[in-house]
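re: ur question from yesterday

yeah so i grabbed the chain u mentioned. its 279 aa long if i counted rite. heres the sequnce exactly as i have it in my notes:
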Amino acid sequence: MELVLSTHLFVRHRLTTVWLERVMDAGFSSVEIFCARQHIDYADRGQIAEFGHWFRDSPLRMHALHSPMYSDDVWGRSGPQAVNNITHSAKAKRIAVVDEIKRAIEIAEYVPFRYLIQHIGVAGDEFDQRKFDAAYLSLEEIRVFASQRGVEVLLENTPNDLSSAKRLNEFLAQTHLNLNYCFDIGHAHMGQGIEPEFELMKDRIRSTHLHDNDGREDLHLFPGEGSIDWRKAMRLLHSQSSRYPLLLELKEPQGMPHPVAEARKAVDKLIELTNTYEQ
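ran it thru and got these structure tokens back, copy pasting raw so excuse formatting
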């Protein structure tokens, strides 16, 4: 399976080519860039052009871009207006959010990537048909804009009542949007369970987010540090392994001197589990 690392691991740091070189040197073939302004300012065309030159001369590929969750550079702490929520019922707010996401997608004009990972709603959102309707309008525009740049939009299962596996399937059935999924194993563990959510999503899974938690909080721990049964989880993932990579989306532990190298050790342990199925 292809091994990919999300820059979420070092999202508290400014993204530079030094970080990308560490990812490449650790043996990851591709990277998913987590779009947060304190990490990568997608409005800074000079910075993005620099990344474009670096990727053209590097074997490391950009697999995906995680859609920006906030429009500010302090992780949404500047206020609720900074939250990028595509389910806004107010047209002006929804248009502003879509425009923000478009600016991020324009990275593809400098650094080609395959997927945009998109949330529907925010953590804890309750179901509301009007939010589904707003999400449809947003995604239809985002999908067209992305496809013009060679990018496919993937919907991620997230911990709210709008984008569980069941809700995502309902959303696609209602809207007839032909979109695929990013399966977040940590979010599934917090919801209806990894196996039930995987079974509902598996035909449309094109990418993954692998991280651990306690089943209650979205902690983005290294595999083995939470309560996920990784032997069972990897058996599930291995059953469809030709469709997607193993993509780690981890949080940097305080005091860890070499987080990228430790991430590679973590994914190697997951690979060892899959090897036992083939013997």
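noticed a couple things. The longest helix spans residues 259-278. also Residues 72 and 78 are 7 Å apart (CA to CA).
anyway ttyl
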